[in-house]
Amino acid sequence: MKAGHMETGTTTAGESRRRSSVFPGAGVLLAGALALSSCAAAPSQPVPPPPANQAAAAQPVNPAQPVNPAQPAPAQPDGSAQSAPARAESPAPAAPASPAAIPNIPVRPAAPAAVSAAPAPVSLSVAGTPINMPVVPVGVSGGGAMEIPDAFDLAGWYRFGPAPGAAAGTAVIAGHIDTKSDNAPFSALKSVAAGTLVQVGREGAPALNYRVVSVELMAKDRFDGSSVFRRSGPHELKVITCGGKWLDERMDYSDNVIVTAVLE
Q1: Taking Cα atoms as reference points, which of 124, 225, 223 lies closest to residue 175?
Q2: CB 184 within 8 A of CB 13
Q3: What confidence score (pLDDT) does residue 28 get?
């Protein structure tokens, strides 16, 4: 099934008569997910001046040229000693200027704190229905819409949106309604009653229990991607397939069946 439009795909038990289900609007959300803000590097720490004894040791002394050695006065023709020329006194070195006070600059880490993501879903079951199947992560098709696995007994989780159990936003899981020869398990979604238990298995984490709060038909030509692929607000699980009438001229169903569930 496709939410919005379809592409040809195969299934494990007969070929689907629909094009692969995809949901327009997913591509817009993907673009937002890839827009990451950059971080400035943390300011450098000030380097303190070396101690005075280290600074003096850094100046090399040539042992072949002793400092101010005692020199004998050369003899004059009359035998008297020639007085050495008066040595001009070097001016005393100026006292080094005291370094300016270094301000106490707060240092913050360059990278933001890591945000732990909810574990990926691996299975989905809906009480009282034949829906009990693996879930795989899916992305965006070349047309900019959500991909759906070709196999009718496999569901897809939109990996660029919230995962089941996230703090906010909607986790979206979708699958096909039928094949060319038979109904698929997701065909039972339209008859699910409020309060039905929906269980989502997760990778490396306990399963989550949801309860159905609503089932609606949304026309594909009026598909509201902003409400289905929501990233903020209360957390919900949305399980979606095709529904309504089969339209030969479109080779697609007229509606989407959207089951909304909340955590117990």
Answers
A1: 124
A2: no
A3: 43
Query: Residue 7 half-sphere exposure, CB side, CA atoms within 13 Å?
Result: 14
Full set of structural domains in the chain with CATH: 26-30+120-263 (2.40.260.10)
Determine the pLDDT at residue 97. Answer: 53
Low-confidence ranges of the chain (pLDDT < 50): 1-15, 19-22, 27-70, 102, 111-116
pLDDT value at position 93?
59
State whether the Cα torsion 55-60-63-64 is positive or negative.
Answer: negative
What does the chain look like in DSSP terms, one character per residue?
Answer: --SSB------BTB--SSPPPB-BTHHHHHHHHH-----PPPPPPPPPPPPHHHHHHTS---TTS-SS---PPPBPTTSPBPPPPPPPPPPPPPPPPPPPPPP------SSPPP-PPPPPEEEEEETTSS-EEEEEEE-B-TTSBB---SSTT-EEEETTSPPTT-SSSEEEEE---B-SSSB-GGGGGGGPPTT-EEEEEETTEEEEEEEEEEEEEEEGGG--HHHHS--SSS-EEEEEEEEEEEETTTTEEEEEEEEEEEE-
Q: Residue 179 has what pLDDT?
A: 87
Tens-digit pLDDT profile for residues 107-158: 555 544 444 489 999 999 999 999 999 999 999 988 888 999 999 999 999 9
Q: How many angstroms separate the CA atoms of 9 and 148, rounded?
A: 10
Phi, psi dihedral angles at 226 (to 5 degrees): -65, -30
Predicted confidence at residue 74, as pLDDT, reads: 53
CA–CA separation, 121 and 201 (whole Å):
6
